[in-house]
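ARCHIVE CARD
CATEGORY: sequence design from structure
SOURCE FIELD: tokenized fold
FIELD CONTENT:
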């Protein structure tokens, strides 16, 4: 008896929804076409990236303004399930284009080698405590993050 009432209600609901969907022809067509177009676009985008990956991987990236990936990871290590930080060492390598960079550009960018550990000597955009969020690292006896200048003219011992 209960099943009979439920069966009629389900059938009535199905007929009502079917009639409403029949009236919305454009919506139904777009629900089918848009995902197909999106997947097709992603397929073409993937092919373009894969075919040009050699160009992207072997080109030098020049950012016109300094861009710092500066997130102090050691304080975040208290969240052990999200961050596994074993030490506080964090540094960045930077260089200048010797043909176009002036001494004024170099002075504006500045330096910060992280020494001494508390209140390091620094200036310019790399000035610690003002433009860079830094913290002392007892393991390396420096303030982190610190910045190393890479001179392309002078070879290092690793080259």
């Amino acid at each position: 008896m209960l099943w009979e009432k439920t069966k009629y209600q389900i059938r009535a609901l199905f007929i009502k929804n079917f009639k409403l969907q029949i009236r919305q022809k454009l919506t139904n067509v777009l629900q089918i076409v848009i995902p197909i177009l999106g997947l097709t676009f992603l397929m073409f985008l993937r092919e373009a990236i894969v075919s040009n990956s050699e160009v992207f991987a072997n080109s030098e990236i020049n950012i016109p303004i300094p861009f710092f990936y500066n997130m102090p990871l050691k304080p975040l290590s208290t969240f052990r399930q999200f961050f596994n930080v074993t030490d506080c060492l964090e540094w960045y390598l930077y260089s200048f284009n010797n043909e176009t960079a002036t001494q004024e550009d170099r002075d504006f960018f500045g330096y910060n080698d992280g020494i001494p550990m508390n209140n390091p000597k620094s200036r310019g955009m790399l000035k610690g405590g003002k433009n860079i969020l830094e913290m002392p690292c007892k393991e390396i006896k420096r303030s982190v993050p610190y910045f190393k200048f890479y001179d392309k003219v002078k070879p290092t011992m690793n080259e």
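CARD ANNOTATION: The chain has a mean pLDDT of 76. The chain has two domains: 2-57, 73-149.
SHELF: design records, drawer C
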